Amino acid sequence: MLSLRGKQPQPDDCRFREVNCHSCGKKGHIQRACRSGAKGPQSQKSSQNQTRTGGHRNHSVSTSYRPMEDGEPNVSSSNKDTNEQYVDSVNTDESDLHYGLYHTLSGVKTNKPYLITLVVGDTNVPITMEIDTGAARSTISEHVYKSSLAHYPIKDTNITLRGYSGEKVPVIGSIVVTAKYGGTSCRMDLLVVKGSRPSLFGRDHLSKIKLDWENIFVVSEPKPAKVGIQNLGNPVSPTLENLLSQNQKIFSSRKWLFLDDESARLLVMNTHKGLLSPKRLCYGVKTAPAIFQETMDKILSGLDNVFCYIDDILIATENENSHLKALEAVFARLNMHNVRLNGTKCQFMKSKIRYLGHELTSEGVSPLQDKIEAIQKAPRPTNVSELKSFLGMVNYYGKFVRNLSSQMQPLYALLQHNINWVWSDDCEQAFVNAKNALASNQVLTHFDPNKPLVLSVDASPCGLGAVLGHRYPDGSDRPIAYASRTLSQTERIMPKSKKRLLPLFLGSRNSTCICMALISHLSQITNR
């Protein structure tokens, strides 16, 4: 807390002329300028409250400075205004009105002082001082002066130091020294106080000495920041869409990471048999899928027609010869990295295979019938949580249903904030339509770069829809994938000219994998 007072204002110009003192009750001054020495109830209460320092050391010093008038003797008197350095914990409303008043707030919750060692004078005398941002002046004790700095003459000073409780700290005088710290040096005016008090490095020299402020202060509240392992939180890739962008007909599938000692210690589990340390990457680790996927991608990198989703390896080719070559390459790569497969869970040379909730055949991809039956038997949702679960199951197979989001608009409306749960007839109809749409046995064809693509888009007042398909020589179209979503409140009030572009953007964004495969195919043709 710092108070700097310049030349005293004239009585007619004083801003506190009509203010009542909280100490003596008289008008014309504030409590800090009161000379009566009496303390009112409010002052005593404030002083009692403020003297509780929370248990940590505090050597804050405030300054109340008035330049000496001409002819005024260079003495200290309790009845006259003098240059005073004091610690005052009284914090009343009048403090906010005082000229040039500053409050120093500390957020450091520790009892450990911050110390620096200065090298003083030509003789390089080391002086250890405690950094105190609340101290207006730097001080050393009489003991330090006599033991290390006695060769510096003491000059008289009219500055008075006061403690929190108001008692005076006796000041012997001041000395002027040259101090060095790190690569900087400055002239310091140090006050010498009686006794063996701590040496304080105050605010008067903080700007002159270059300190490592980052290590000294810990006053800011913690804020979330980005870290260097963000890739572990990204969605695991590749996805099923990467596979669907290939024209494959023969499949092989299969359903292991040892931990080093340092990682194993972090995953110790408390069991009824004591503490157990896993040897392999176990379930429950948040970043385990991303770590495992990254490892498998490195092992199988560079192999054509090979797809891996975490621990499921899929080989998909157009014919048997290329399939056998791909199998041989995968086995060689796994053997190189000491990866073993469970033969009972492997399937080889199949024309139909179940993979990630889908059935893959030479004709295309379709949802698993047992998954569709589970959706058909799903009960009517009774709350928002159950509705989200149902919509999650349906949307996983949304690529098989045209304009699915528009059909389920009444259900999505129940998910909005500040909407009461009311299961209306429209909700019931949308619930039944979603089940019936998934029961249509729709089969999506494989992407073939040699066949022409057709992208059909549509927009309704409440949703968008897109269909990407192949056009066959007979003129018929077979879908590769469907995409749909509902419109936000902002999108619903867009002009029609802009709203017509939204489904086109939706279709192109959801067909990124196929578009990239087509670009790659065209690039191979161009390079031939």
From TrEMBL:
Pfam families: RT_RNaseH_2 (PF17919), RVT_1 (PF00078)
Keyword Secreted: no
GO biological process, one term: proteolysis
Region (Disordered): 35-85
Sequence ranges assigned to domain CCHC-type in this UniProt record: 21-36
Alphabetical keyword list: Hydrolase, Metal-binding, Zinc, Zinc-finger
Composition bias, Polar residues: 41-53, 74-85
Signal sequence range: none
Coiled coil: none
Peptidase A2 domain mapped to chain residues: 127-205
SUPFAM superfamilies to which the protein is assigned, alphabetical: Acid proteases, DNA/RNA polymerases
UniProt xrefs under InterPro entries: DNA/RNA_pol_sf, Peptidase_A2_cat, Peptidase_aspartic_dom_sf, Retrovirus_Pol_polyprotein, Rev_trsase/Diguanyl_cyclase, RT_dom, RT_RNaseH_2, Znf_CCHC
Source taxon at top rank: Eukaryota
GO MF assignments: aspartic-type endopeptidase activity; nucleic acid binding; zinc ion binding
UniProt name for this protein: CCHC-type domain-containing protein
Organism this protein belongs to: Stichopus japonicus (Sea cucumber)
Source taxonomy: Eukaryota, Metazoa, Echinodermata, Eleutherozoa, Echinozoa
